[in-house]
């Protein structure tokens, strides 16, 4: 059974960059489309970005389009989220999962953007 482990979060100033990683253990992502989601305090979890099995098909929420880039390395069972030009509204706990979500949620990784 696939387990999800998110990492790479931290404190960053507005305008800075971070790269998040989502590692799969106990299995592989296979042909599944993978995605990043985020949840801020007091708000519901929302979709951020998705990527298909080959890595050639991607989609983004309008709020992050042009700033974030999703990628994957199937040989390493890892999905990445490159976050550029971050702003305080990006502050949230970031999670990965299949799209639509069907795996148990991991612990997520906290991203805090200071202004």
Describe this structure in words.
29% of the residues are buried. The protein has no helices and 10 strands. With 115 residues, it is an all-beta fold. The protein is globular. A hairpin with a 6-residue loop joins strand 5 (46-51) and strand 6 (58-60). The mean pLDDT is 95.
- The percentage helix is under 10%
**Unreliable spans:** none
Please outline the major beta sheet.
6 strands, mixed
Provide a count of the helices: 0
What coarse outline follows from CA principal-axis ratios? globular
Secondary structure tally: strands: 10
Average pLDDT, rounded to a whole number, is 95
Q: What is the straight-line distance between the termini?
A: 40 Å
Structural class: mainly beta
Report the order of strands and helices: EEEEEEEEEE
Strand order of the largest sheet: 2-10-9-4-5-6
Radius of gyration: 13 Å
Strand-residue proportion = over 45%
Descriptive tags:
0% helix; globular; 115 residues; 4-stranded antiparallel sheet; 6-stranded mixed sheet; mainly beta
Question: How do the helices and strands line up, and which of them pair or pack?
Answer:
Blueprint: E1 3-7, E2 10-13, E3 18-25, E4 34-39, E5 46-51, E6 58-60, E7 68-73, E8 78-83, E9 92-98, E10 109-114
Parallel strand pairs: 2-10
Antiparallel strand pairs: 1-3, 3-8, 4-5, 4-9, 5-6, 7-8, 9-10
